[in-house]
Amino acid sequence: EDKVVQSPLSLVVHEGDTVTLNCSYEVTNFRSLLWYKQEKKAPTFLFMLTSSGIEKKSGRLSSILDKKELSSILNITATQTGDSAIYLCAYRDNYGQNFVFGPGTRLSVLP
Amino acid sequence: EAGVAQSPRYKIIEKRQSVAFWCNPISGHATLYWYQQILGQGPKLLIQFQNNGVVDDSQLPKDRFSAERLKGVDSTLKIQPAKLEDSAVYLCASSLGGRGMNTEAFFGQGTRLTVV
Question: CB–CB of A43 and B112 under 8 A?
Fold first, then answer.
């Protein structure tokens, strides 16, 4: 069965720390890997990684896709309290158009 | 550009009552999704529409849940009768769609349902 695993499930850091969130997936026919940030209810899009675009960066956030290991990481440098949220990883396969989500990593950044 | 609109934002009902949620996707987005997110879990797909046709409803509990997308735009999700385990956030999302397209999904603010 296709699935997404994220680790750690919960993480507490202090402002200024650097964090790495992990996502691994098992999917029959991979198309894309997406990262979302969920602060209250609505997940907001961060990155999409595909076979033709395996590394993305935006400000303090960056993400890399490892196609061989079927995994991805999300890095956040110089964390701020505003980074506190749940970070969701999701994949999309070549057959359907559905996004399959992992359980998320709850990040808490303390001042 | 207006985002995905959902209503209501919050709903509290007693078990065995019925409830309906409404979603208006981003203009031009052919694909619409309803997800259920139970506390501490990631969103789980309930149903996916492409225009006004159902693409995937394999995880929709059809004995109590129903959804429709008339005219390929707005959508409603209904639960009747509700159970305690239906307490969750119901998220609507839309995307440009198309099987060959690499597009992200945009989410609405969600509806937090509490069944007591």
Answer: no
Give chain B's count of helices (H) and strands (E).
Answer: 0, 11
Nearest beta carbon to residue B56 from set A50, A98, A103: A98
Cross-chain residue pair B98–A88, CB shorter than 8 Å: no
Residue in A40, A90, A103 closest to B41 by CB = A103
Cβ-count burial A62-88 (b if 16+ within 10 Å, e if not): ebebeeeeebbbbebeebeeebbbbbb
> Could you list the mean pLDDT of each consecutive 10-residue stretch along chain B, which spans 116 residues?
91 98 94 96 95 92 95 94 98 82 89 98
Rounded Cα–Cα distance for residues B5 and B108 (Å) = 6
- Collect all residues with Cβ–Cβ distance below 8 Å to A75 and sequence separation of at least 6: A18, A19, A20, A21, A61, A62, A63, A64
Q: Is the pLDDT of residue A95 over 90?
A: no
Q: And the tokens for B93?
A: 């999302």
Q: Which residues of B touch A46 (CB under 8 A)?
A: none
Q: State the Cα–Cα distance between residues A16 and A74, nearest whole angstrom.
A: 16
Residue A104 near chain B (CB below 8 Å):
yes
Measured between alpha carbons, how far is A105 from B43 in angstroms, rounded to an integer?
13
> What is the C-alpha to C-alpha distance for residues B21 and B8, in angstroms, rounded to an integer?
7
CB B94 within 8 A of CB B29: yes
